[in-house]
Amino acid sequence: MAVVADRGERYWLDELNDEQRAAATHTGGPLLILAGAGTGKTTTLCARVAWLVAEGVPSERILLLTFTRRASREMLQRARGLVPASARVLGGTFHSVAHRLVRRHAAALGLPGGFGVLDAGDAADVLDLLREEAGHAKSRTRFPKKGTLLDIYSRTVNAQLPLSGVIAEHFPWVEDHREAISALFREYTTRKKALGVVDLDDLLLMWRALARDEVIGPRLASSFDHVLIDEYQDVNGLQVDLAQALAGFGCDITVVGDDFQAIYGFRSASAGHILDFPEQFPGTRVVTLERNYRSTQPVLDAANELAAQATRAFPKRLRADRPGGVRPAVIHVRDQGAEAEAVADRILEARENGSDLRDQAVLARTSHDSDQLELELLRRKIPYVKYGGLKYLEAAHVKDFVALLRLADNGGDEIAWFRVLQLVEGLGPASARKAMAVMAGAPRDLAESPLDEMGEGRLAAVPDRLAAWSEAREVIPSGARASADAVIAALVVARDEQRAGPRAEGLREVLAPLVRARYPDGAIRVQDLDQLVAAAHQVGDPRQFVAELVLDPPQSSADLAQPPHLDEDYLTLSTIHSAKGLEWDHVHVLAVYDGNFPACMSAGTSEQIDEERRLLYVGMTRARRTLSMYVPVRYHHRPRGIDDAHGYGKPSRFLTKAVLACCDVTRLPDDPLNPRGAPIVTARRLSVSPDSLFD
DNA sequence: ATACGACGGTTTTTT
DNA sequence: ACCGTCGTAT
Fold it and tell me: At A217, which helix (H) or strand (E)?
């Protein structure tokens, strides 16, 4: 053994409990760490990385795969804190590692060297283009929209299941269009090839192709001695294939996860994969972590009861390490307005009792569940940051900016052209198409073929596209020409600038006035662009900048900015999906009614219902000290709250007697079932629903 | 013919 | 927020 540290240097092993230490120091054969919520999963994984390095495994021969960049950054940082020699551990998300490998083997995969990566929005735009070309946009029968198409496509690819089955099971309402969708997906594959681009799913497909190749596969696997995979309950079939290919060629494999926290079924993940791990990887040692360092026992009692409802699961029962605690609250409220008030009241109360806003969070099933609450927070001047829901990259002005960056890099990107041309006032879809047709008909360089081995030829083709502008401008309305000329001129300058920062800066200048003119809040949006420009300065290569933006999308503009000041105090609002792995002293879960937990469209199969239950479980187990769950009795059908359509709901079916027995149930005095503060009756449960009429 | 504003309707969750 | 439709202005 090259490095034998003495006991004192390995103090961090002594700080682990027996199970954690067993996991961290396991040798020989596959390892499955079943880490319940709050049981020190990250600590254990970091300790294992540190231990491997301390035992002499070269750090660059360890691969750590996570689902988010944040997770990999955090773990690598902590591992380095334990053992500085672990500095060179290769860590990243499945997609970013895939990107690195696909880049290195682009030629073998038939990709141009400078291939672009489509984010979900771009992929949907390509599908939309094909949808339009095939005449589905105009057809009488309602054809699925681009977002749905992408969902169907992605699900099919990631689950590696036949399209017909995916449609039958998850998208039955598009059954009539099955053949057209199938044809469209084939065209999508062809079109991506022609454009020289890959989407996020392709990255995984291509990695798998490399990993399974009899020549390249063993070489990839031989670069690593150990592969560690975080959040294994969230892997899909494609990712299991990757793990198996790596293990098959000799890597030692460690996976960590909690089947109770599998909540990405809609992304083709399946808790089945972690349940099946011991069979798929013979000789697996299973270590279960049940000692919870996060919450107090009353919160865990309720969570354990909820988990006990699951049909198939590894048996686990969380035990609190900390003593004391208060029972979770189940609070009935009149409607979402009353819910907002109740939440705000309790948050302010907690703040007065010494809890900062940053120690509190409000979690919801969907991002718009907190719409009313946001108004209330605004009214009471309670600062908050919202995670999940609309993302930064999806904002129109950011997409515009990225489209400009893409165009400066690849003049053949028709999706980007279509978007950019329409930025100009007076220039709409029809003129954009005409201009694009003229530019596409311009003299071509042979090197423009996207299948060109070197791929470098694509740069040489760009001048042709832009040079054809003098003809293309003739086919657009005369009033729009001057403004369009300015955009093209900026693109010409940007194309000749190879540094990401200055290139982004030039494009910002031409976009800023257009953004200011288009949106009432244009000035704020321009600030977002400034942050992107600042981020571009940090990255040398413009292509790399766009790829990183796609692979690791900033959650909000705050992500790009400098770390927020420590003295700023703000509340966290988040979807439960985005809250995974996080914790707060005080957690509020909104809208725990049947129809939201489970969501009415996810109540079809028992698989789906199980996942909805786990979602509530994840929400509940985020709480360190107090947990409050709100049940609005009357809720709006329309999330926007424009009309007053509403229904009378029941509490979530997951709040069974056994779960409620662990909670304090409260009705507010203005509850419609209990007007004017009459004596509170909790024993009876009345359900009012006209649903039986609607057959 | 084209662009654009107004308006009504909408199967979540995201690497 | 987006999407499709329709009426109006250019």
Answer: helix A216-221
Structure tokens at A567: 């003295």
Span of A15-19, A146-150, A256-260, A537-541 with lowest mean pLDDT: A537-541
CA-to-C1' span, A428 to B5 (A): 14
Going from the C-alpha of A503 to that of each of A118, A496, A526, A618, the distances in angstroms are 20, 8, 16, 43
pLDDT at A456: 44
Tell me the helices (H) and strands (E) count for chain A, helix number first. 29, 19
Radius of gyration from C-alpha coordinates of chain A: 27
Q: Characterize the bridge pairing of strands A62-66 and A90-93.
A: parallel
Residues tagged in the binding site annotation of A for ATP: 35-42
When pLDDT is cut at 50, 70 and 90, the band that residue A688 belongs to is very low
Nucleotide nearest to A480 (CA to C1'): B3
For B11, nearest residue by CA–C1' is A601
Strand B at less than 7 A from CB of A437: no
Residues 134-163 of A with CB under 7 A from strand C: 137, 145-147
Nucleic strand B contact set for A 67-106 (CB, < 7 Å): 67-68, 93-95
Predicted local confidence at residue A681, as pLDDT: 43
pLDDT tens column, A477-501: 888 888 899 999 999 999 999 999 9
Give yes or no for CB of A645 within 7 Å of strand B.
no
